[in-house]
């Protein structure tokens, strides 16, 4: 998989982005102010991630998704490694990511990639999404905040 940043005049892969985030309005807001990277195989986009600067020295992965037929092959890990490298090269102190309390596999993946749990945004999903989200038999209500801290 070849990973590259998309050009300003290029459409982001909305379908993939919506796999990770059901709110088109929220997705559009961070795509507008963020950096979109896509993973391609034979010219086809099969993965995406979006990063946005949230503080002067902090970048956040706002969205990450791999096409369903390519999941479970290590591509998610490769996209996250790429995001870590890019952020490190650009001199940021931290890379953050948030996920739902019900996103068990994502919590495992992010910790495998070196992220540590640093906080909980209680009822984030209840406040920001119109419809309830259920995953793995759990109501998704709280956002678990994780950080990858670069050594200085
Ligand atoms: C989350 C996502 C990007 C991971 O991408 P991926 O290519 O499937 O992940 P990988 O193959 O690199 O998996 C890495 C680890 O995560 C775990 N994992 C991730 N998603 C999983 C799933 N749906 N089911 C089981 N395990 C999963 C695996 O256990 C794997 O660990 P292992 O190497 O010890 O087996 C992908 O599943 C996806 O697009 N999901 C839908 C969108 C989404 O939820 N985005 C994140 C929102 S917070």
Describe this structure in words.
This protein is an alpha+beta fold and 152 residues long. Helices cover 30% and strands 37% of the residues. It has five helices and nine strands, in the order βααβββαβαβαβββ. It has helices at 14-20, 24-33, 75-89, 104-112, 124-128, and strands spanning 2-5, 35-41, 44-55, 58-66, 94-100, 116-121, 134-135, 138-139, 143-149. The protein has a seven-stranded mixed β-sheet, with helices on both faces. The protein has a two-stranded antiparallel sheet with strand order 7-8. The chain is globular and about 35 Å long. The termini are far apart. Coenzyme A binds next to helix 1, strand 4, helix 3 and helix 4.
Say which molecules are bound, naming each kind only once: coenzyme A
The amount of helix comes to 25-40%
CA-atom Rg in angstroms: 15 Å
Q: Termini, distance in Å?
A: 30 Å
Mass-distribution shape: globular
Give the percentage of residues in beta strands: 35-45%
Tell me the quaternary state.
Answer: single chain
Structural class: alpha+beta
Reading side by side through the largest sheet, how are the strands ordered?
1-2-3-4-5-9-6
Number of strands: 9
- Major beta-sheet overview: 7 strands, mixed
| Mean pLDDT across residues | 96
Helices, by number, come to 5
Question: Low-confidence stretches at least 5 residues in length (pLDDT < 50)?
Answer: none
- Give the SSE string: EHHEEEHEHEHEEE
């Amino acid at each position: 998989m070849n990973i590259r940043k998309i050009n300003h005049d290029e459409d982001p892969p909305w379908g993939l982005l919506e796999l990770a985030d059901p709110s088109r309005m929220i997705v559009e807001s961070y795509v507008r102010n963020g950096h979109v990277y896509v993973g391609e195989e034979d010219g086809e986009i099969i993965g995406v991630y979006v990063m946005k600067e949230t503080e002067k020295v902090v970048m956040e992965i706002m969205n990450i998704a791999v096409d369903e037929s390519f999941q479970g092959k290590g591509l998610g890990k490769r996209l996250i490694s790429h995001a870590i490298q890019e952020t490190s090269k650009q001199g940021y102190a931290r890379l953050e990511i948030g996920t739902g309390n019900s996103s068990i596999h994502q919590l495992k993946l992010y910790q495998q990639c070196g992220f540590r749990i640093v906080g909980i945004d209680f009822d984030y999903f209840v406040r920001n999404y119109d419809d309830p989200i259920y995953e793995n038999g759990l109501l998704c209500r709280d956002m678990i905040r994780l950080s990858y801290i670069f050594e200085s």
